[in-house]
Design brief:
about 375 residues; alpha+beta; Rossmann fold; Thrombin, subunit H; 3 domains; 6-stranded antiparallel β-barrel; 6-stranded antiparallel beta barrel; about 25% helix
């Protein structure tokens, strides 16, 4: 029933001019708006009614932290989206640790506030998910673009994605490859995903793509153990986390609708393929996981080094498609990015056909 109700928001801010700007934006986004001037008043109001979005001025940081904690511990508001308004004097990482989802800096203007509130609007339905994320705090090695073995910390995880912290500048929709061990586990997980949200503090959300069945079973088993431990109130392998980590509704995985940083429209797909290095007749069997008019990514446990000239072959029931390319990036154990080298009209037609196949897969999934 809750999903069919009108969306609601509560602005907790004593600045009348800021409240006016924020209220107008939220109403334009289709949310009902209520306002109050203090965290204490907001806490009382939130005991009486559910709000999908809480916009909170953190000028009094201890009071704001208390309200965020109250919100995250409230069954009525555990999945609410919290937008924190901060200034240069606030400790932004600490506010995220308390449980804020989005953050932007004052002064408030429509131009500055609109992107964050639009993102909050998009998070609402995503955060009404069945699966909670389990909090963790484990070091991970990530690879993305041309960078290998970058440091990151996984903060929360479920079967569909994870939240993490990194100093690297990642783009929305960028593919990232993770390697880490879950608490209490010896085996390393190797997971690929797409960045679907990133905060200015370096905190980000990833949605998994093409998870191997063995990895999926291991992850599911671990998550079930943690969920059972939490439900029973018994210690679990995530016990001993730094204070402030939680079963988060915090990193909301947004739809990857942002523009590709290479200005080419990539399509996610899952097409069986064979890759032939120029000096070999032995194929590498792999999965083509995304494609654009300029190149593709293929997932394989034995990627070729950058600079390798390859031929990609995709067979369907109706036809065989061959495209030439060159390996641009390589992620050991995960896969490689390939830039197409299209010399003929036939090859260009084959790329168009592969993109059409990817689009067809997307329509079938939807």
């Amino acid at each position: 029933m809750h999903g069919s109700m009108a969306l609601t928001s509560l602005i907790v801010c004593a600045d009348a001019e800021a409240v006016q700007v924020l209220s107008r934006i939220l109403r334009d986004l289709g949310l009902q708006v209520e306002t109050c001037g203090s965290a204490a008043t907001a806490q009382t109001r939130m005991r009486e009614q559910h709000f999908d979005v809480l916009v909170l001025d953190c000028h009094d940081e201890p009071a704001a932290a208390t309200l965020i904690g109250h919100t995250r511990n409230s069954p009525l508001h555990r999945a609410s989206v919290i937008v924190a308004l901060v200034n240069a004097g606030n400790r932004a990482p600490a506010i995220f640790e308390e449980g804020a989802d989005l953050l932007f800096y004052k002064p408030i203007s429509r131009e500055r506030a609109l992107p964050s509130l639009h993102a909050a609007r998009g998070l609402i339905r995503r955060e009404r998910r069945v699966q909670p994320r389990i909090p963790v705090h484990v070091s991970a090695s990530i690879a993305h673009g041309g960078k290998e073995d970058a440091a990151a910390t996984v903060l929360e995880i479920n079967e569909s994605g994870l939240g993490f912290q990194t100093l690297d500048n990642l783009a929305e929709n960028e593919k990232v490859y993770f390697q880490f061990a879950l608490p209490g586990q010896q085996s390393l997980l190797r997971l690929a995903g797409e960045v679907v949200w990133r905060a200015a503090t370096g905190r980000a959300g990833v949605r998994f793509v093409n998870v191997p069945q063995a990895t999926k079973r291991l992850l599911r088993h671990w998550l079930e153990e943690q969920s059972a431990s939490i439900a029973e109130g018994t210690p679990s392998s995530s016990a001993g986390l730094p204070e402030g980590l939680r079963i988060s509704t915090g990193l909301g995985l947004l739809s990857p609708s942002g523009p590709d940083r290479r200005n080419l429209s990539r399509r996610a797909c899952c097409l069986g393929a064979e890759v032939y290095p120029a000096d070999s007749n032995v194929p590498q069997r792999c999965t083509l996981s995304d494609i654009s008019s300029g190149g593709c990514y293929v997932e394989t446990t034995e990627p070729s080094p950058p600079g390798t000239i390859v031929t990609i072959v995709v067979r369907t029931h109706e036809l065989k498609l061959c495209v030439a390319g060159k390996v641009q990036s390589m992620h050991p154990g995960f896969g490689m990015g390939i830039r197409f080298n299209l010399a003929t009209d036939e090859e260009r037609a084959h790329v168009r056909e592969l993109i059409a196949r990817a689009d067809q897969q997307t329509r079938l999934i939807r």
